[in-house]
Amino acid sequence: MTAWRAQPGLKVAIDGPSGSGKGTVAQRVADMLGLPVLDTGLLYRLTGYLMIRQGLTADDEAAVAKLAESMLGDVVWNRQGICYRGQWLNDELRGEDTGSAASQVAAMPQVRQYLLSLQQQAAADGCVMDGRDIGTVVLPHARAKFFLTASQRERARRRWTQLQQAGRNVDIEQIHAEIKMRDQRDAARKYAPLKPAADAIVIDSTTMRIDQVVDRIIAVMARRHLIEAIT
Ligand code: DC
Which domains does the chain have, with CATH numbers? Predict the structure, then answer.
């Protein structure tokens, strides 16, 4: 297998809807290049999780924004995931209800504003960052931007398989409906909607394996001399 070296400080933005495979792809690309991977969804998930835990609802936007601001001092967010007040919460944040709450808080401009500078600071020395607005808002000057997508049905099938493997018996039609609703909310919001940056390379992974997507991304960056093979 070829080893690769990234240009110093290289920032790679990988955006896309849920189930597009961006998390796994980002992790593999980061490992191949020796860069940290940063999952921005965790920041929105933590905000949604705390909103539920504190008995708040998305109707009270001012209170949720305040929560996002105050939580920042207690958060460690890095390649290992997210830690709040000394507790790593990666698994706790994976549930469907947290995902849905995350999507609601992610539509709040003030929440996004509070989380923006944390993301930009964390990316400063180079990273692979995945999310929805990395190429458009968080790292608009990133030299490598990719937007992964796949059909809603295929994304529902992937999520369903994941849950089955985790021993959870769920209805694929319900997952499909949830994905549809989440897509609509993420793409229709006024502030930082889910959409490819003008200079992003769009990859439809509906009929591709993860390793094929990773190979495509590596090939693009090598062609642009953003990374080089180490012989
Ligand atoms: O990628 P994920 O499923 O963990 O993201 C959870 C929610 O957070 C999702 O509904 C969209 C939102 N999100 C966002 O709006 N911007 C990001 N950069 C990352 C996630």
Answer: 1-36+126-231 (3.40.50.300), 41-124 (3.40.50.300)
